[in-house]
Amino acid sequence: MTPPAPSILPAAAPFWMSVLMLPLVALAATQGGFWWMLLPGYAWYLTTALDGVLGLNANNPDPQTETRRLFWHRAVTIVWFPLQFGAIFGTIWYVSHAGHLSGAEKLGLFFGIGVLSGTIGIVYAHELLHQKTRLERWLGDLLLASVLYSHFRTEHLLVHHSWVATPRDAVSARYGEGFYRFFWRVLRDSPVSAWRAESRMLARAGRRIWDRRNPFWRYGALQLAMIVLALILGGAQGLLLFVFQAFIAIWQLELTNYVEHYGLTRRHLGQGRYEHIQPHHSWNASHTASNWLLINLQRHSDHHYKPDRRFPLLQTYNEDQAPQLPLGYPAMTFVAMVPPWWRRRMNPRVRAWRRQFYPDITDWSAYASGDLPMPRNAL
């Protein structure tokens, strides 16, 4: 990568706010007590407070900006895996040898690390997996393996982006579906869906499921290596803490998935045919600070329009083009954990979305229940 002009660094600097969470891990590990609460406090509450102060950012960058001018934007995603790897496994080793932390303090600490690896790590993995370079895709795989969720790559790239807002996509949350029901449905269905998608891709190429090109063998090997390393560094306790942070990270990811498309559906055209994905099939948020932390993930409609567009170039949409969330993702995922509160905030917005974009549809029952036909030729 050719370094850009020095003037680019200030534009990229806010997207490095995630790195400030790493000293908080060290502080919580060495001090114990409730210092671990600084991690979710920073990622969720401080970011939401900054959103309130800084407001919305509706500026759209030039989407034709050359990749070489995005050096410092790309750099934060590229260096993140070794940083997160050190935070997870260095802390496993440390707490296994230091005697000043109680069991509850260790759980709190690894809850905070799970917030780090979910709120930041999986979001960065998502960005990396959509790129074309071998290095970036491998780093994305390693980040997902560190939270034991490697199948997300297949499910996201082969299923979600093709069939979002249809019954084929497990992570398109249905209208009225509470987060906890959604969460367990996704944990049950997504691995099977991803395996089926890869199996059909291999079959189309005349290969069998045990072919070395099946990425599930790579997924399994990377995840097994992470598990073995946790055992070596911390024994059974290290393994339990590693799995616990992975669960917290996955919970963070699926909360975000739940928010991104809740209640939004593509029009069924009959006989398993669905309209093309449009900007109005994703919830968007232009809140400044949370887009810094989440590297513009909240500009979600444009991500579905141009999946390989790098995060600094993602465009935002106004309310005439795409539905808008009242708060950024960190605040909305907190609301999602209280289903009655979520329904009070979001169901009226979904009904308004229906009136705005589909005034001719009067019966939404099959859309809400997920009982429409599966898309034709779906993986």
From TrEMBL:
Keywords: Cell inner membrane, Cell membrane, Iron, Membrane, Metal-binding, Monooxygenase, Oxidoreductase, Transmembrane, Transmembrane helix
Membrane topology label: Multi-pass membrane protein
Location within or outside the cell: Cell inner membrane
Organism of derivation: Paracoccus stylophorae
Superkingdom of origin organism: Bacteria
Protein name: Alkane 1-monooxygenase
InterPro entries: AlkB/XylM, FA_desaturase_dom
Family (UniProt): Belongs to the fatty acid desaturase type 1 family. AlkB subfamily.
Fatty acid desaturase domain residues: 109-333
Keyword Transmembrane helix: yes
